Each structure stands twice: as C-alpha cells, then as structure tokens.
Amino acid sequence: MYVITPSLFEWYTVRTKPQEELRATRNLDAWGVETFAPTWKQPRPSQFGCKVSYSIKPLFPGYIFARFDIRKSLRTINYTRGVYRVVSFGSGPVPIQEEIIDLIRARVRDGLVEMDEDFQCGDRVRIKEGPLAGLVGIFQTSTRSKDRVSILMTAIKYQSRIVIERQHIEKH
Predict the structure, then answer these.
(1) Where in the chain is the domain with CATH 3.30.70.940?
(2) Handedness of CA 34, 40, 41, 45 (dihedral sign)
(3) What tens digit of pLDDT does each residue of 12-52 get?
(4) CATH-assigned architecture of domain 124-171
(5) Per CATH, which fold does 10-113 belong to?
(6) Which region holds residue 35: left if phi is over 0, alpha if psi is between -120 and 50, else beta?
(7) Cβ atoms of 80 and 24 closer than 8 Å
(8) pTM to 2 decimal places
(9) What beta strand segments (E) does 18-147 contain?
C-alpha cells in the first residue's frame, strides 16, 4: 500500500481560545513555530453622520495559521496556552495550501490586510445585482454585521435609505 506522507513543514489552521489569537501567536512563536495571524482595520461608523473610527481586529476571529511538522509538533501545538486545538477533519489535521497563505500575505500593507473597496461616506455607488441593479446611490454607512451597507437613494422628489448586501455594490 502506498502512503502519502506530508512534507516536513506545512501550514495548518489553529483554533484559539476566545479572543486569545495574540496570546496563542506569542506562545507558538516562543516554541519556534512560524505563525501568521492576519489582522485588518475594521471601520466602526458613528450613528450620527459620516465619522468613522477604526479598530484593529483579527481577520479570522478565533483562528490563526501555524507552520509546523505535524508528526513532531501536534501535541505541543494543541497544549500551548491560548490554543484550543489544530483544526481537523476526518482522520486528522488538514494542511492548508501555501498559496492561500501567500494570497493573504500579498494583501498585507503596514501589518494589516487591505480589504477590497473601502467605501467612504458620500461615495457614489452603483448596485450590481438584484432587483435594484443599475441604480446609483450614495454610500452612508456599514451596518453592525459589516456584510450589509446603508445607501441613500434619490428618486423623483423622494429620498429613501436602503440596506443592501455589501457585495452587491461597487464605486460609481
């Protein structure tokens, strides 16, 4: 029987204890394990207008990436402070393709992952999909879920605010 053995060092997803991404990263780094815990600048819109503040948040809350030899280090990784466990499916931990890590790293600028279009209050946007496709409005704010946005639409002496999926708009 032919058995495929993993290469010595591969990337794995590590689930951390709640809000302990930084602790897990530091502890794994102390063990000499290469880690990657991408962060991004999350906008927090104000309720009263266009003022936006930002906070640094994990790109994948509760998860980090670690590169190690699974045969030698799995137990050490799983028992590191801040770590819940290495993510597994079926018979054990599944490695992540290095291209995925490289893709995320390619978007890192000044230590933070740059997200796609960053809409600013007042930007003109066009709806790309759905029953309102083609209409143009003014971006107002992101909702608390961050997947939806609020747009001010103007149509024949009537203004209306709509909430729509962020993925359905683009800058106009």
Answers:
(1) 10-113
(2) negative
(3) 999 999 999 999 999 999 999 999 999 988 776 666 656 66
(4) Roll (2.30)
(5) Alpha-Beta Plaits (3.30.70)
(6) beta
(7) yes
(8) 0.64
(9) 34-36, 39-45, 52-58, 63-68, 83-86, 88-89, 92-93, 108-109, 112-113, 124-127, 136-142
